[in-house]
Amino acid sequence: MHIDAVGVVGGGTAGRGISIALASRGVQVTLVEASHRKLEATRELLRDQLTREIARWAITEAERDAILARIDGTTDLEEVAELPIIVEAIHEKFGSKVKLFQKLDGICNSDATFITNTSTLALSRIAEGMARVRRPDLVGLHFLHPVSRVEVVELVRGRMTSDRSVEVARGLAAFMDKEVVEVEEYPGYVTSRLTLVLINEAIHTLMEGVATRDSIDRAMKLRFGTAQGPLALADEMGLDSILRALESMWHELGLIQYRPCPLLRRMVARGLWGEKTGRGFYMYDEDGARIDDGIEDLSLPRLETILGDTP
Q1: CA gap 72, 224 in Å, rounded
Q2: Do residues 53 and 65 touch, judged by C-beta distance below 8 A?
């Protein structure tokens, strides 16, 4: 499948990752943000993210500049109206996604395929807000963070999703060198459902004083052979995003394991969101690289001090 141009709506962590992955393969990306302020911030974050890849010897400066040149930023949703594929990657709020697809439904070409990156919301319920004739055009592709390194993507078919839309989504995933796992339309699918429980329990384990930050992450890294533990992963994904996803799962399923840990709520309320704010369970510099916070092994009492010192 040959792809020349794709629209991406939302410049958060997922939207930036999807945009970079596509632009790296020669696709012209139109990235839509909600405001000029957000768009400027997103442009800076894209450059910073790619500059870190240069530091890792993953790409050259010329490659960074070429990727950035293929990502056109805009605040005008009309600029994706003529594109064949539009990927939605806005925040995980049902009402916002419904409103967005209603707008896209009214302005896009009749043969456009709409892809949602939702991880916890019901695809078919989102599609119900679209005109009946366009509902089959909506399909789910749940990309995992970090998009550039995780090889799997979950493909979700809604009740009315057409075979054509599924094949377009499969083609896009294959073009991005992703392995597709088809999952049933159900809150959290596979990856989010299991990952959110692990992270929530890890935060409970820290809050209850069972083990320290480093001990929890080291134990799980050694147990599963992963590059990072659940607390470091939470920082990378964003504690604010973790909280929204857990609240959505708690609302959708009513299962106790998805009720957000009180410590997570406190950290989000204090602005300790992880890499994006420079402090979560670990500390980060302005480029998002982890730095020594002077704490040999963070325990709950030390974290309580940090929470108390945070405005």
Answers
A1: 39
A2: no
Q: Could you tell me the two tokens for 214?
A: 């480093």
How far apart, in Å, are the Cα atoms of 73 and each of 11, 23, 34, 305? 9, 13, 11, 41
SS3 labels along 82-112: CCCEEEECCCCCHHHHHHHHHHHHHHCCCCC
- How many other C-beta atoms are found inside a 10 Å radius of the C-beta of residue 137? 26
- Give the residue with greater pLDDT, 120 vs 191: 191
Q: What is the pTM of this model?
A: 0.85
Cα separation, 35 vs 74, in Å, equals 9
Distance CA 297, CA 299 (A): 6
| Percentage above 90 pLDDT, the chain | 71
Q: Which of 250, 252, 32 is nearest to 122 (CA)?
A: 252
**Which residues are registered as beta bridge partners of 8?**
31, 87
Question: Can you read off the two tokens belonging to residue 256?
Answer: 């106790």
Query: 216-233 pLDDT, tens per residue?
Result: 999 999 999 988 999 999
C-alpha 290: how far from chain center: 20
> In this structure, are residues 139 and 169 in contact, taking their beta carbons and an 8 Å threshold?
yes
Helix (H) or strand (E) holding 243: helix 239-253
Is the model more confident about 95 or about 303? 95
The structure tokens listed for 194 are 């299991």
217 vs 259: CA distance, rounded Å: 21
- Give the model confidence (pLDDT) of 138-151 as tens digits: 999 999 988 888 89
DSSP-based three-state secondary structure for 42? helix
